[in-house]
Amino acid sequence: MSPKRKTGWIRGVAILALLAGTALSSKVYAATTASTALKVTVGVSLSVAIGTSTYDLGNSLVTNQTIISTGAIPVSNDSAGLTEDYQIYGSSSANWNPGVSTNTVADNFNLRVLISTDGTIVPVYSAFGTANTGLLDGVVNSVNMTNANFGRFTNGHGDNVTSGTSKYLWFRFITPASITAGNNVQQTITVTVVAANSSTF
Q1: Is the separation of the CB atoms in 135 and 143 below 8 Å?
Q2: Residue 73: count of CB within 10 angstroms of its CB
Q3: Are the beta carbons of 179 and 107 closer than 8 angstroms?
Q4: Which one of 20, 33, 160, 166 is separated from 121 by 20 to 30 angstroms, measured CA to CA?
Q5: What is the CA radius of gyration of the chain?
Q6: SS3 of 112, please?
Q7: pLDDT tens-digit profile of 26-43?
Q8: How far is the C-alpha of 129 from the C-alpha of 113, rounded, in Å?
Q9: Higher pLDDT, 64 or 148
Q10: Please, are residues 132 and 150 in contact by the beta-carbon 8 Å criterion?
């Protein structure tokens, strides 16, 4: 090999070695911070519990008689952390229908309900006035319980009831003025409490 070629080859090897050394000495660093997004959905169901499945208003009643329940029926928000609104429905019985007027007619009863924070003090007749109670007159006119309250109890309503809270239902029932069907036959009226998302009503 001639001296010129040898010199060129040496220079080439030197350049490659230099480039290789530069590549080996260079380090790639990661970013100083990194993050990841965690997504989670909690599925809690609305739930309401009534502490009494059956309440007997009596079996020796007469026509056009007013009965006020003497025992409170507890109703509780037993959901796992939701705040709820309550709405209440009252049904007809096998022979009688709910009516708006307290002056009942044949086979027609009148039923009012209030929600109280107190389960011991029995409300009087006037406590069931239209300003603070709901009228159970069938599913068409279901009760918005937001304003249904026992006046002197500050939170006696079914609006924004927090989880774990118990309130109490009281009823005022007026029997039909006369009966053409269902005489001496026990009648059953179903009262249904519906839990809805907070601020629904």
Answers
A1: yes
A2: 20
A3: yes
A4: 160
A5: 38
A6: strand
A7: 566 667 898 999 888 888
A8: 10
A9: 64
A10: yes
